[in-house]
Amino acid sequence: MERSMRRKTLVFALLLALIPSQSLAATKSPTPTPSPKATAKATAKASPSASAKPTATKKATPTKKPATKKKSLAPSPSPKWPPAGYKVMDDIYYRTPSVEIMMNVAAGNSALAKAVAACKEFSCGRLQVASLIGCVYWEIESKVITPNPDIAGSFLTMGMLRTLAKKSLPKEIVTLVLPSGELYSGTIAVVPTAITCHQDATTETVPSNTYLRR
Prior knowledge:
There is one protein chain. This protein is mainly β. The protein has a domain at 9-13 and 81-213. 7% of the residues lie in helices and 32% in strands. The chain contains two helices and nine strands.
């Protein structure tokens, strides 16, 4: 084995499960001044008219608006690691996701959605993988099996599937569809048997699926 390539290979057990003051006025009434008395003829003098009542108005003190405090946005939390529900060997994490998880992931990934749609016609497997160190590309080896009608609890191998998947970053979860060349049947299962996280580039086509029927 070349030193330039770091291979991490996993061997699986066979799996059957396939996806919100008021202003105050100070007023003082003036005291009327008495009219002077006449000795011979009384002359009526007009009483001095009351002066206008002065009004003292208290000016309202402008209220200062409280300073607006800016809320700092907290950074998004990092994805939980290790991911829940995954099995691990060395620095590789893997699991067979439920159909619901596959559909949720495919809803935001057009390429994956297309691959999932093909499983209405062909028998497929499901797999999610991740690596602590990241991979230049992934290699998945799978068996396509069906129950042996002659021996209870045993299986017949219909063919072998080899899947090459894209580069992934450290701790990035890659969701894969493993499509066989066999028409869909409830009795056919695509079971991963080995996973390799390659650290060197390849001249092969990535992504790709190669199925060899027995």
